[in-house]
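Hi F.,

I've been meaning to write this up properly since the lab meeting, where we talked about keeping a consistent format for the predictions we share between groups. The idea is simple: the sequence comes first, exactly as it goes in, then the structure tokens exactly as they come out, then a line or two of notes. No screenshots and no reformatting. I'm using this chain as the first example so we have something concrete to point to.
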Amino acid sequence: MVDERLTRRKVVAATAASSVLGLSGCIGGLGGNGGNGGNGNESDVEEVELGDGEKQMEFAGWGDGVERETVEGMLESFAQERDEIAINYQHVPDGYEDRLRTQFGAGEAPDTFYMGMEASGSFEEVLVDLQPELDQELLDDMDQSVMDAVSPREGLYYLPKDFQYNALVHNTEVLSNAGYDEFPEHWEEFRSMLEAVRDEGEVEYPVVNGDPYWLTFALIAANGGQVMNDDRSECVINSEENVETFEYIRGLREDDLLGLPDEVASDGDFAQLGEGDAAMVYGGGWILAELKSGYEDVNEVADIAAPPYPEGEEPGTLILCAGYSISTETEYHDESLDLVNYLMGDGIMPWLETGIALSIRESHRDQVDLYEEDERYQEWFEFSEFPRLTAQEYGPNTQEIINTINPQLEGFYQGEIDPQQTLETIENEVNGILE
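Output, unedited:
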């Protein structure tokens, strides 16, 4: 098996292989489109100096709008509590992983930073193992079902800071106008609803997939399919269940029921819903947070629903996650641990109140006012009972596997490759990586 984790010699060479997957915030923090992918542009990086202390720490992250403002406030609060510390906050709107790899290669990595779930395996050798460094009380408070999905390997090289159960966030008025006051659970009923919405003509597409491929993996899980086997040693995506899933998706695409982001005018999944391009989009809490900020009228009639599943199967969805990592070369090891503990404790409360992501700490769920005031968040936490939860975490080669899958999915969604051929190609190419 090829090990794609980074050594200091590998770190620069790996830049070209970094993810094309545009993760939003948690995937971290999840806040709008953008995030980890792209080639990046150094001139777009903005650095903000917070605090006046002599210890000059560096923190890097992605995310725009509500997310960026909130994270900056959290960091500033920490710097105010610690007079000896100043934080250089590096906001990276695009090309995050490319930039981070280059910084490691040059010996200039930030001390503490966002780390996407899908990238953590390839950075592992230059990250501090946080498992023995953090208080057991904190670790015991983490939602174990989420931790099992998003951090299954030995060691803890990124600490999940929050997470998303992705849902179909939908405009209930548009669905009601099409004759649906209840959201259907099963594939065929869901398709009938999309047809009714399409025929009503209020939106460009009944559903737009915020990231073109996230809904795909949720539907795979809901139909009992897998991408990898249980120990992540073999790709098993070319299965009967997955062929059925891809044929279902192809039917939605052919009948103009499922659109892609570049097929509508609005930029960003929350805008696609807020501006009426779509009756529903697939994603996490950042959608509601941004609707609340910029599309209050739509936010008032928005609700969430789990992805549909075939009759006779069981519900499931995709978990997205990102966390905090610390560089092994930091000069401020203890201070970085203090910062992570702060950002996972009292310091995270302003972030959780935005609703952009769900707290991974179980004790927080009785402390966040938003969770009590907005019943949609209680609905989200109920997704934990689903028997089929999945995450794009495929072992230390996750990054390369995702980069292999995505071009094939793009061809499939554009109608250039049929379901069977898509799945065969993905399985063969991924298993070639793992040999």
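Notes:
The mean pLDDT is 88.
The domain at 10-164+319-391 is CATH 3.40.190.10 (D-Maltodextrin-Binding Protein; domain 2).

If this format works for you, I'll send the rest the same way.

G.
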